[in-house]
Each structure stands twice: as C-alpha cells, then as structure tokens.
Amino acid sequence: MPTGTMKKLTIFITIDTEDGYFDVPRLITGEGLAGSPGVYKILDLTEKYGFRSNVFLDVYSHNEFQPGVLQQIALAIHERGHAVELHTHPDMRLDFYRNNIYCYPLEEQVRILEYGKRLIYEWTGENPVAHRGGSYALNEDTLASLHRVGIPIDSTLFLHHKNNKIPGRLTVNKVTSYSRTIEVPITYVKVVKKDGDLLDTKFDLDALSADELIQVIQLAKEHNLHTLTLFLHSFSFIHKKTKNTTEEDDPKLFFVHRLVAAV
User: Fold this and answer.
1) Which residue in 157, 163, 189, 151 sits closest to 176, CA to CA?
2) Largest CB tally within 10 Å, which of 55, 81, 105, 230?
3) What is the pLDDT of residues 169-195, one digit of tens each?
C-alpha cells in the first residue's frame, strides 16, 4: 500500500439520461412504471444524502417526444439544483448528426455541439459546463470543438473502448487537459471473472455489485486517486427487456421495476 497522507477523494455522480425507444420518456422518468423509477428517483436518493448530480441529458432526441416534454425534464432537474450537462447521441431524425460524433470534421462537430448547448440554455437559462459523448465516442476534434463552443469539461474517455479515438488514449482514471479541454475520464476498472479472465468495465452502478463498488472506492483511496466518476443511467433502476418493433407499446410487457430499497 502506498505510504504518506491520504488525500481527499471526490466522487462525481453522473447520470446519462436518454430514451430512444418510445414516444414517452419511460427510460428517463420511468413514466408508466410503479414508483416512476427514473432519473427523479435517483435524484431523490442523492438529495437524501446531501449530494448533487451531473445529469448528462441527450437533447438530440427531443423531437421523439411531445413538444416541450424534454424541456420540462431539463428544467425540473435544473430547478432541483442538479447540473444539466450535454449528452451527444446521434439521432436519425437529424440530417446533420446521424453517426458517431468522431465521424464528422471539426466544423461539423462544432455545429453539433452548439445545437445541443443552445437547447440546454433555452430550456434552463444556463449553459452546460460538461459533455459526454454518446456511446463514449470522441476524437481530438471533439475536444477541440468543445473548447470552441465554450464547454470546458469532457467526461467521455473510456479506456480501451472502441469509440475512444484519442491517440495514446490520454490517461488512466486521472483528470487531465487535452486540446484546452479538461478531461474527467470515466473510471476504468478491471474485474476478475469466474473463469479467471479480466473484464474491462467501469465504476458503474449497473456493471458492479455493491461490494465491488465499495472495493473500487477503497482502492482509489489507498492509491491516492483524487477523483472517481460514478456512472449511472436514468434507467439504472429499470430492468429493460428488448421488444420487437411490431409489439404493442405496453410497458408491463418489457419493464420490471427494480427494488430501489436495495440501493
């Protein structure tokens, strides 16, 4: 174990908030499910213990819902004192953004980011200060584009992920600066599987058991890591089963509410 004074460990609670399946935001708010086990339930839990979250909102899908629905969600999160940040998932309804963001040259990435930033400002009255790429997608132009549009922080980098297109992959779990953008990486961990092989994963409520989450925190403190990025989705308390596109849109058939009391 490293010697010396143990430094303070900061844990960022980050929630990716998205729904590309339905015309009502079931995977965001849990609408139609018992207890509405979506992002508001997660915020209830964080507020209960005096914490605030960074909610990365996929604004590009706003046209999939009734007008104003996603705006109301953004405003509700903001008014509760949590940060509404930019989450950039492509949307087939947008001619200018149908592929991973790194597929576009710098000027087009600037346009994509400005579109999302403008929506968050219009909805909440504040600009986002952080960004997370959909499907962990980014390259050097993404970070340069963030600087151009005035978003100082990125939290997309997921070591060894196929959509990480940064040469040298930047850093392992340490905050750094690249292209004049602050990179707060997704906390990368390795888990020993039952067969003894190592699994690449992240500090994620959906990926690790409670004991494993605690172990990551303990190891981070032992090794004087300054920050951890806790990863959740708005549907982390929802068990989602894939449905056939021809099936009737009935949430009882493919959603089961997880027991929030176990968290």
Assistant:
1) 157
2) 55
3) 566 898 999 889 999 999 999 988 778
